[in-house]
Amino acid sequence: MKKQEIISLVPLELEENKEVKEIEKSLINLKIKRDEFNFEEIKLLYEKEGKKYPGDEYLSWFIGMAEGDGCWYVTKNNGTKRLNFTVTQHSNDLQILEKMVKILQIGTVNIENKRKIGNYKVLRNKEIKYIIAICNGNLVLPKRKEQFKKFLEVYNTKVKPEEQIKYKETNILPNLINSWLLGFTDSEGCYTISITRKKNTIDAKIKFILTQKGEENKIILEEIQELFKVGKVRSHSTKNCYTYTCSGFKNCKLILPGHSSGVSSSPRIDFSKYQLKTKK
Q1: Contact, 37 vs 136, CB < 8 A?
Q2: Span 19-40, pLDDT tens digits
Q3: Can you state the angle between helices 142-157 and 125-135, rounded to 10 degrees?
């Protein structure tokens, strides 16, 4: 995340005032409020319905996956609005979608053979409330928050006033203490290796890439860059797209388990605890 510039609003004649200087010092040290995932509401819903709770780690992974390959949208049929939630995957990863049905205990999977994709779909209003309880206040990407907010507004027009749900405004950022980044990587991440031969030598180059569309989502890629302390965020060749790229063995090994930069606090993903689920 870009560092914020602190602009002093203190008149010049008060600059030497000790009390004023202490106030300015506290403002400089003040950090942007960061929220954490809160699954209390969905826990209560599962308990009320007598269903097994999926667990915090799975839900944080699920949200990361949904923010990458999911969609909250509204369709119209004969003037009637219908709420839809979908997560799409290549047919190679249908097991991911089937596990969603099994673990979340809502939704269905349909397969489009011609397009070689599968869709996890939640359509019934009774099940849509689970998706709302999971996602409300727990989304990370600004663009997804906007999409979900409109989705929730339509939901509230379809239920009784006492059943309406207030949108929760939060500021959750990527970190390494839950599975959101793994879910997001499962959906949006890419690992590449290029090999070139030069006479008697072989040169291999590796990259870890995350791409997002929209200026509003660029800040999340910058936060990931700041989190790992390696890599760069650049404009993509596609208009209004941005890419976080970590290149080279020296940098990439810092975010993989079993390696260290020599600094004990060197951040990396603990894949033994937080595991990728897709076949990529």
Answers
A1: no
A2: 444 434 433 333 456 899 999 9
A3: 140
